[in-house]
Every structure is written in structure tokens, then in C-alpha cells.
Design brief:
The chain has 316 residues and is of the alpha+beta class. The chain has two domains: 2-177, HUPs (Rossmann fold), CATH 3.40.50.620; 181-310, no CATH class. The protein has helices at residues 2-9, 30-37, 50-55, 68-86, 106-115, 135-138, 156-164, 182-193, 200-204, 226-237, 265-277, 306-310; strands spanning 15-19, 40-44, 91-92, 122-123, 210-215, 218-222, 245-249, 257-260, 287-293, 297-302. The strands form three sheets. A six-stranded antiparallel beta sheet has the order 5-6-8-7-9-10. A two-stranded parallel ribbon has the order 1-2. Strands 3-4 form a two-stranded parallel sheet. The two termini are 36 Å apart. It binds iron/sulfur cluster. Iron/sulfur cluster (SF4) binds at residues 21, 24, 66-68, 71-72, 103, 175, 177, 179-180.
Length: 316
């Protein structure tokens, strides 16, 4: 918001880009903010190659599974393509030197500019005076004197600037990215350690349900409420689904589950035990579960078992 406002103060036309990944929160304020600032907004998603950064980041991870430097290079690479498509002259971002430990150290900013092939065309107005003058500054398209020398984690000067520019809804400093959350990251690390390292479908499911690992090739996801139960069913029906079977309590109330991996007798017993663990009202001698796979529908009698009772969720 501030970077855009600073450019507008200098009479420069701006188009805004908002990046979304499958790990970022969908309830952001980008649309409203763009309206408030009077700029056109384009939302950019990621392709499947983004997941390669998560599986094997070149520049390391933050405290969770967040490959922030690689991620920002990826974003700015997309921004460069967009810039060329619309005939824009350069790119500005709201990055501040030293504000975020994983991606905004001075060295990281240089790495991001270099590897996104933007170099001289990436201007950070909030910290510009701490960085080498970029082409827009050297050419006089932007007046460097009116840019800033903000650095560090304190938001004090940023909030002062927001007030100066009349910005009312100041967002929290949260990244809104699940990859930075330790609990979510545990599921990500589990997925990328599995033999096939997870496809997009598997990553998209990480936000839904309780996840349990049965063995190297087999994982189970249980819905935590009706909404998640329905979402599991939806994901299971997609052509790209990796799940091999879906489980429904037949004569008791409880969650639905998806099995990912071979539907062996042991795996089915394990899932059945999990459904009982998260159900309060089953008959211990006659609990039935419907198991639907691509080729078969069967009714299975299940009992509580040690493996299901003792396994911990991947996010706990
Ligand atoms: S917090 Fe998430 S979205 Fe933001 S740069 Fe890091 S990995 Fe990318």
C-alpha cells in the first residue's frame, strides 16, 4: 500500500499485483485496498512448478516450511513477465530491509533482484536510500530524494507514513501464509518425505482435516466437521485424486476419512479404528464402516485398535 502511494505521490501510474498460492489465506484485503488506492488489481496464482520450491528450495527455509527467498524470486519472475506484457517500465515492492528475517535481509533482496532477472528494475521505495540507485532513480523517472531509508522490524515509521498518506485500514504484519506455521509445516515435511513427494492434489488437502501417517506409502485424512467431510468427498472425486478409498460410518455418527495408499486389510482396520476414536456413539461389538474404492463398495466391521488409538496427528 505504501509503495503504491509513494509512487502515486510522484505522479506515476501503478498497476497492482496480488500473489496467491495454495498456502496463502484467501480472506485478504487486496481487492478493497486496490479500490481505496484507485489502482487496477491483477491476482496471480502459481503453477505446479511452485511446489518444486517447497520440495527443494535453493535458498533454504524459514522457521517453518516457508521457502521465502525462492518464493519471492518466483513471484517477481511472474511480475517481470506481467510488466513486459503490459509495457510497464519497472516494478516496485513494499519490501523493507531487515523487516523479515527470512527474505528481507539486505543480501536476500539482492539475491531476489538478481535471480528474478529484474536487477535494476526492482525498486523498493521504503528502503531505497539504503540500496543502490536503480535504473528508474538514475534515469530520473523517480525522484530518489522523495524515497525512504526505512529498515528493521519496527513498524513505527511505516504506520506514521500510512497516517501521512491517509491510509486507514492498516493490515497486521502477518504473512497470511500457512507455510510459516510450525503445525502446518509438519504436514508439509511429512508429505515431501513420502516416496512420491506429493502432487498438487496432496498439497491442496493439507489445509483440510486431521492427517495421520500409517506407513511410508499410506496416509489417512479425517474430516473435523461436516464441511471438511464434504470437502474430502469432493477431493476424492476429482480426476487427479490420489486417494484410494473413502470411509463412511454406517451405523454410528463420526467423521469421514480418505485413505491415500494401498487399501490393505491392515490399513482399513487402522482407518476404522480412527473413525471410532473420533466418534462418541458406536456399538463396540457392531460398528460398521462403508468403504468405497474405485472398484468396490464393502461394509466392514471395525473395532478400536492400538495402532489407531496411539497414532498422533501430523499437526499435533
Ligand atoms: S511467507 Fe509464504 S508467501 Fe510469503 S514469501 Fe514466504 S513462502 Fe512466500
Amino acid at each position: 500500500m505504501l509503495a503504491i502511494r509513494i509512487m502515486q505521490e510522484q505522479g506515476i501510474d501503478v498497476e497492482a499485483l496480488n500473489f496467491k498460492t495454495i498456502f496463502t489465506c484467501c480472506q485478504d484485503q487486496a481487492g478493497q485496498t486496490a479500490r481505496d488506492l484507485g489502482v487496477r488489481l491483477t491476482v496471480v496464482g502459481q503453477d505446479d512448478d511452485y511446489l518444486d520450491l517447497v520440495r527443494k528450495p535453493k535458498f533454504g527455509l524459514g522457521k517453518g516450511a516457508n521457502p521465502c527467498v525462492d518464493c519471492r524470486i518466483y513471484m517477481f519472475d511472474k511480475a517481470r513477465v506481467f510488466m513486459e506484457q503490459i509495457g510497464a517500465d519497472f516494478i516496485v515492492s513494499g519490501e523493507v530491509v531487515g523487516q523479515r528475517p527470512m527474505s528481507q535481509k539486505r543480501r536476500d533482496l539482492d539475491t531476489i533482484s538478481y535471480h528474478s532477472d529484474l536487477e535494476d528494475l526492482l525498486l523498493r521505495p521504503l528502503s531505497a536510500k539504503m540500496l543502490h540507485p536503480t535504473l528508474p532513480e538514475r534515469e530520473g523517472w523517480v525522484d530518489r530524494e522523495q524515497l525512504y531509508d526505512i529498515q528493521g522490524r519496527s513498524r513505527k515509521r511505516l504506520i506514521e507514513l500510512a497516517h501521512k498518506y491517509g491510509l486507514k485500514d492498516i493490515p497486521t504484519p502477518s504473512t497470511g501464509c500457512a507455510l510459516t506455521e510450525p503445525r502446518f509445516s509438519k504436514k508439509v515435511f511429512d508429505l515431501i518425505a513420502a516416496p512420491d513427494r506429493g502432487q498438487r492434489w496432496d498439497f491442496e488437502l493439507l489445509k483440510t482435516g486431521r492427517h495421520f501417517r500409517f506407513d511410508e506409502r499410506t496416509k489417512v485424512i479425517l474430516g473435523r466437521d461436516n464441511c471438511e467431510n464434504d470437502h474430502l468427498l469432493y477431493m476424492h472425486q476429482l480426476p487427479e485424486a490420489n486417494s484410494t478409498a473413502e470411509f463412511f460410518p454406517d451405523n454410528f455418527s463420526g467423521p469421514r476419512a480418505l485413505l491415500i495408499g494401498p487399501a490393505t486389510t491392515e490399513a482399513i482396520d487402522f482407518v476404522g479404528g480412527l473413525l471410532l476414536r473420533y466418534s462418541g456413539d458406536y456399538n463396540p461389538g457392531n460398528a460398521l464402516v462403508r468403504v468405497e474404492s474405485e472398484s468396490d463398495i464393502s461394509l466392514v466391521r471395525v473395532t478400536p485398535n492400538e495402532a489407531s488409538n496411539q497414532v498422533r496427528t501430523l499437526a499435533s
